Amino acid sequence: MRTTKRISIPDRSRPGLPTTATCTGGQQGTSGNCATAGRRRRRRRRRRVQRQWERGKGRSVQVRVATLNVGTMTGKGRELADMMERRKVDILCVQETKWMGSKARSIGGGFKLFYHGVDGRRNGVGVILKEDYVKRVLEVRRVSDRVMSVKLEIEGVMMNVISAYAPQVGCEMEEKKYFWSELDEVVESVSKDERVVIGADFNGHVGEGNRDDKEVMGRYGVNERNVEGQMVVDFAKRMEMAVINTYFKKEEHRVTYKSGGKCTQVDYILSRRCNLKEMRDCKVVAGESVA
């Protein structure tokens, strides 16, 4: 199966950013028939998806995925929709949404946000899909306010998009280990014949160079690796993933976070290593942020 995913990572240019079935037309008192009709529809849908998956083998599908720490989703929905339209982004993973609840909400422009959060003051993750992809959603898993995933069927290709937000450097090590155990469980639960793409703010620096880690990353990171960056690399090795950012030599498109004159890379796109050749591009889009 051949799948092409064009991947972009918008930049944060300042700190803190960057089933109810309804039956109609029946007679009153036919709820049993309604339930039966609902089951038939679900079975037909499952069969259709399976047929599409079989037909999709060998087909090329192009998807543009991005990730962005938004600081908060409040007041930024339309701005994000405009950015996705302008940059032709199909799927956007967002972190630090700071919205409570587990819902799906339109943000305008035909884009819909699936999100999860438990505290309106911190954390929260989400996945924004363009209109064409919303109807292709098969499953949404809201694991915690730091990890969630959306499974889609795109022209027969099964794709699992995970949005993740790792604890900051100053957080307790126990909290960090718990986050990585959650992410491990989500990735391990995905069938090996399905695609996995992670868009994340990992709050860690994987660093430049790959002398001892060539199986999971390229040479084009930023600065030196820290403890949190090593956790990213260790995760990639455990789960047989690859840190896509680091495979593309783009000096001006590596930095994802700027603060106090310092530039670094803490936002990443990861994919299964066996699908690495399907990745056509990965870069930071300079100047794209949300206020």
From TrEMBL:
| Composition skew (Basic residues), residue ranges | 38-50
Residue span, Endonuclease/exonuclease/phosphatase domain: 66-273
| Region described as Disordered | 1-58
**GO molecular function annotations of the record:** catalytic activity
* Pfam families found in the cross-reference section: Exo_endo_phos
CDD domains assigned to the protein according to its UniProt record, in alphabetical order: L1-EN
Q: Which InterPro entries match?
A: Endo/exonu/phosph_ase_sf, Endo/exonuclease/phosphatase, Swc5/CFDP1/2
List the SUPFAM superfamilies: DNase I-like (SSF56219)
Name it.
Endonuclease/exonuclease/phosphatase domain-containing protein
What is the scientific name of the source organism? Answer: Eptatretus burgeri (Inshore hagfish)
